[in-house]
């Protein structure tokens, strides 16, 4: 069974440019999570979806970050415009039910903003 | 507020035991977790312990919890090269609640 798939694996962009990350969760997983992991830190939850509904986006910087999960399957996370401080690994995870501890993680997208 | 602290690095010789320590501040934390992150990979839940337990053992892994001192440790017996990774301590108030992660301890295995 395929795990959580994220693309791209790496992305380098100049500041002020837009960037988007894509996540394909495990089939049948209703809950999808996006995390940001800064260098030398643990992951921080940005947004959680239950099916297509964003049920917890309190940590998502809404001035420049947006996310969507159309049809309750794949999800995209967008940053526009990117800032130097957005350099991090963006992790996607999914779970059958809304329980973080049972989430399976993707490999992440490493973003470098120069 | 919620905070999880752990040392950043640990070097251990192959075959020895590794002990990774963690302290947390929220006394209402009910669940404490250890995650493993291998290079270029996402996090993998290794084990968790409920706050009314003192110890939990799973094959080479032993988790010890001192609730009075808010101290959690992960012991890896007979450390192998495949154990080289970053280990994150984490807490939550309940299994369905938000998880707060520490900064991670990078375990380096010496030959």
Sum this structure up briefly.
With 114 residues, chain A is mostly beta strands.
Walk me through what this model shows:
The complex is a heterodimer of chains A (114) and B (111). Chain A is globular, with a radius of gyration of 13 Å. In chain A, strands 2, 4, 5, 6, 9, 10 and 11 form a 7-stranded mixed beta sheet that branches. In chain A, 0% of the residues lie in helices and 48% in strands. The mean pLDDT of chain A is 94. Chain A is mainly β. In chain A, a hairpin with an 8-residue loop joins strand 9 and strand 10 (104-105). In chain B, 0% of the residues lie in helices and 56% in strands. In chain B, strand 4 (31-37) and strand 5 form a beta hairpin. Chain B is built from no helices and 11 strands. Chain B has strands at 4-6, 9-13, 18-24, 31-37, 43-50, 55-58, 61-66, 71-76, 85-92, 100-101, 105-110. In chain B, the strands form 2 sheets. In chain B, strands 2, 4, 5, 9, 10 and 11 form a 6-stranded mixed beta sheet that branches. In chain B, strands 1-3-8-7-6 form a 5-stranded antiparallel beta sheet, with no helix packed on it. At the A-B interface, strand 10 of A face strand 5, strand 9 and strand 10 of B.
